[in-house]
Amino acid sequence: MPNLGLLLWDERLRAYDFGPGHPFQIRYRAEAARNLGDGAASPERGDRLASSGPIEPASRESLSRFHTAAYQDQVHEFSARPSGSYLDGGDTPAFPGCEVAAARVANAAVRGLEAISEGRFRRAFSPAGGLHHAHPDRASGFCIYNDVAVAIANALRPGGPYRRVAYIDIDVHHGDGVMYGFYDEGRVLDVDFHQDGRTLFPGTGAASETGRNDGSGLKVNLPLPPGAGDGTLVPLFRRVVPPMVRDFRPEWIVLQHGVDGHAGDGLGGLEYSDAGYAAVLDTVLELAQEVCGGRLLVTGGGGYDRHNVSRVLSAVGRRLAREEPETALGTPEEEPWVDTVLRDLEPALGRRFPSE
C-alpha cells in the first residue's frame, strides 16, 4: 500500500514572483505550504503530508512535451533581461530568473506524476501550481509555463505511465491553455467550471466548445454567471463530473483547485465558500478511489485574497492527508442557475445528466 499524500513544495518556488504590485502573489501559497509542514498539521490525527524535498527545474525535454522550442527560447531570452518586459500583452511580466522559476513550478507537477505513477504515493498536492493559462507557444494570465499541461503531456508520452487522464478545473477563469492544448486529444477528458467568459478573462469556455476530432465530446465547459455560489457549483459538479469520469475511466485525475471563485476574491465574481470547495474535493477523492486507485494530483491556481488562499489551500492539503473527511458535507440549496447551465450543456454534449 503506497503512502497517502505528498506535499510538493520547495522554498525556491517562491522565486515565481512578479513583484509586490502584481495580483499573483506566491507568498499566499507559501503560507499554505508552511501550514501543512508545521504545527498546524497534527501527526496524531494523521493529517500531515510527506515532504517532497528539493524540486529542481523541469528539463527542456520535459517542457517540450507541451511547450514549443521557440517559446522556451523566448522565455530564456527574457529571463536574462532586467525587469520591465512582458511575455504577453501586459498581464505576465518577465523578470530576471523567470525561466528557472517557471520551470521549477512545472517540475513540481511532474514530480507529483512520478511519485504517483511509481506507486510511492496515491495523492500529491502542488500549491504553487495550476498555471493553466499558458499555451504551448505563449504566456498568458500570469502563467509562464503550464505545469498541469506539462504533467499531463508527460503522463501520455510514448512509453508514459498512463493512457487516459481526466483534468478537472474549478478556477474562476477558464483553463484555456489546457483545454485548447489538448482540444483534439481523445486521451484527455477536460471538465472546466468557470465564470462565464463573456464577463471575465480569458473570454473563452462556452458550453458549445466540446472538443474536436478524437477529443470531440471530451471537453466540457460549464460557464457560470457572476454571483453563482455553492448552490450552483456543488449540484452541477455532482451531476456532471461523476458520470463523465466514470464513462471515460481515467487512470489518473488532475484537479486544478483555484481559490479565486471564493466570495471576496478581487478578480472574480463568484461566491463559493469553504464548504463548497470541500464538497467538490470530497467528490473528486471518492471518484479517484472508484475509478483509478485513488491516483490524484491537486494543484493550487488562482486566488487573490491572502486569507482565502492560505486557509482554503491549507484545508485541501490536510484533507489529502486523510483517508476520510472529518464531517459529512450536505448539498447546499440549489440555485436557479443550475438548470440554465444544463440547458446549454446537455445539447452541446448530446447527453443528459441525472439529478442528484
Please give a structural write-up:
- With 356 residues, the chain is of the alpha/beta class.
- It has a single domain, classed as Histone deacetylase domain (Arginase, Chain A, 3-Layer(aba) Sandwich).
- It is 36% helix and 12% strand.
- It has helices spanning 26-37, 60-63, 69-79, 98-117, 147-155, 176-181, 230-248, 274-292, 306-320, 337-349; strands spanning 3-7, 50-51, 121-126, 165-169, 188-195, 219-224, 252-256, 296-299.
- Strands 2-1-3-8-7-4-5-6 form an eight-stranded parallel sheet, with helices on both faces.
- The radius of gyration is 19 Å and the shape is globular.
Describe what is shown at a glance:
The chain is an alpha/beta fold and 356 residues long. The protein contains 10 helices and 8 strands.
Annotate the secondary structure layout.
Blueprint: E1 3-7, H1 26-37, E2 50-51, H2 60-63, H3 69-79, H4 98-117, E3 121-126, H5 147-155, E4 165-169, H6 176-181, E5 188-195, E6 219-224, H7 230-248, E7 252-256, H8 274-292, E8 296-299, H9 306-320, H10 337-349
Parallel strand pairs: 1-2, 1-3, 3-8, 4-5, 4-7, 5-6, 7-8
Average residue pLDDT: 95
Widest sheet: strand order?
A: 2-1-3-8-7-4-5-6
CATH superfamily: Histone deacetylase domain
Uncertain regions spanning at least 5 consecutive residues: 39-44
Which structural class should the secondary elements be placed in? alpha/beta
What's the N-to-C terminus distance? 33 Å
CATH fold-level topology = Arginase, Chain A
Any idea what the CATH architecture is?
Answer: 3-Layer(aba) Sandwich
Compressed to H and E, one letter per element, the order equals EHEHHHEHEHEEHEHEHH
Strand content: 5-15%
Q: Portion of residues in helices?
A: 25-40%
**What is the tally of beta strands?**
8
Supply the number of helical segments.
10
User: CATH class, anyone?
Assistant: Alpha Beta
Strand count, sense and barrel status of the largest sheet are:
8 strands, parallel
Give the overall shape, derived from the CA principal axes.
globular
Gyration radius, rounded: 19 Å
Domain count: the total is: 1
